[in-house]
Amino acid sequence: MTAALILLALIALLALRVPVAFALGGLGIALLWLGDLSLFIAPQTLLGTMDNFILLAVPLFLLMSNVLLKGGVGRDLFDAVQSWVGHWPGGLGVATIMSCAIFAAISGSSVATAATIGTVAIEEMSKRGYHRSFVLGLLAAGGTLGILIPPSIPMIIYGVVTEESIVDLFLAGIGPGLFLATAFILFCFVYARWAPDYRPSPKASWRERRQATLRALPIALLAAVVIGGIYAGWFTPTESAGVGFAVALLITLARRSLTWEKLRQAVHGAMVTTTTIFLIVAGAKIFGKAITLYRIPQEVSLAITGNISEPAIFILAVAGVLLLMGLFLEALSMLLIMVPVLYPSLSAMGIDPIWFGIFFVVMIECALITPPVGLNLFVIQAVSGDPMMTVARGVWPFILIMLATAAILWFWPDLALYIPFRL
User: What does DSSP assign to residue 147?
Assistant: First the structure.
């Protein structure tokens, strides 16, 4: 009964449009007060949450992706990929997804990925007869690769909340990330076969390919430094983010594409997003501490294990709840609300927590592109200037592909677990 009342109170606060951070934190403090528990728990929890070396990776990755966005590296990256695959059926769509995948391996941010590649690809694809809804939906969905292909900010937060290895989470995200990117590419092939107005791009000459590839080479090297440094054991994820930011700054300054004003905008944008994320994390930690003292996670875990004996039904229920929540909440809020409650049930169900983290990220990818609050929808709308309905119409095939990927991940768990534990 207590759990139901707390859930109704949280839903009511969110329905009243109270910011997620203050809804979670405020409700957590109210629960401490009503339970006659020390209110000093709130500042202690807040300080303990912020005093975390791993969380430093979040502002550093955001700084790096914003510098690359303002420095206009998306054009060079897209041109290089397009020169190699643009003449394929649906080639510009393929180039868009491949560019999103490469940029995702640098930034860790879906918003930065969608915005960076979108500023270049929308115009190019529209000129080649791609339907506008398809173009915008493809870019919104391609941007979601930013939180699945490592490094990934939600994976960092998941690792902090659950105390699981972030490197293992990163490694586990590679297989599903490449699988999902491949599925998007195959859909581009199918689209090109049946689209009435599609016109293929001319094949680039070897000279054009060489020139475009050389221009994009620093970006490929940046991706190699960020990802290779983590997996080779040279850097922690946080140190890798710092090195990546420094290299991104050098690349954009050497290209003379980053002015002081653009750098100021990049720093300001990263600061605003970081503050938002940290406030949500802090509010969620206070709320999580309060409901733990009320033994809500333990009761939910016992209720789940007592009434749901099959892991498949548990996962199906989790997927259904996440799809429903995704209509109203953004990805990070879902992660911070749901994971502390569900995590204690995983061991009883025999579900690998690393696998569950990847499954969870795939499901919250859907939240990034589901109306009415899908964050990537607003990003692509802002970049393109099209009505929201035009963007929303284009994402439904990609949502179905993501759900199919989640189902395949259940039936084939090694898609996520093979690289970190069996390779």
Answer: G
pTM for the model stands at 0.87
For residues 246-257, give the mean pLDDT: 89
- Each residue's pLDDT tens digit, 57-95: 888 888 888 898 888 888 889 999 999 998 899 999 999
Model confidence pLDDT, tens digit, residues 310-362: 899 999 988 988 888 787 677 787 888 888 888 988 988 899 999 999 999 99
Distance, in Å, from the CA atom of 188 to the CA atom of 14, rounded to the nearest integer, reads: 38
Sole residue written with tokens 């109170």: 9
Cis-peptide into 196, omega within 30 deg: no
User: DSSP letters along 48-73, please?
Assistant: HHHS-GGGGHHHHHHHHHHHHHHTTH
Our CA dihedral for 371, 358, 114, 259, rounded to 10 degrees, sits at 130
Q: Where are the domains of the chain?
A: 2-421
What's the Cα-to-Cα distance from 414 to each of 36, 259, 334, 348, rounded to whole Å? 47, 46, 25, 20
Do 110 and 145 meet the contact criterion of CB atoms below 8 Å apart? yes
CA–CA distance, 89 with 192 (Å, rounded to integer): 6
CB 137 within 8 A of CB 170: no
Question: How close are the terminal C-alpha atoms of the chain, in Å?
Answer: 46
The C-alpha atoms of residue 321 and residue 323 are separated, in whole angstroms, by 5
- Alpha-carbon span 72 to 69, nearest angstrom: 5
Position of tokens 């090195």? 243
Please give the single-letter amino acid code of residue 153.
Answer: I
Q: Residue 354, Cβ neighbours under 10 Å: how many?
A: 24
Q: How far apart are CA 319 and CA 9, in angstroms?
A: 23
Amino acid at 352: D
Residue 256: phi and psi, rounded to 5, are 60, 35
In whole angstroms, give the CA distance from residue 136 to residue 130: 10
Tell me the C-alpha distance between 283 and 375, whole Å: 20
Tokens of 243: 């090195």
Q: CA distances (Å), 315 to each of 59, 179, 309, 320, in order?
A: 32, 20, 11, 9
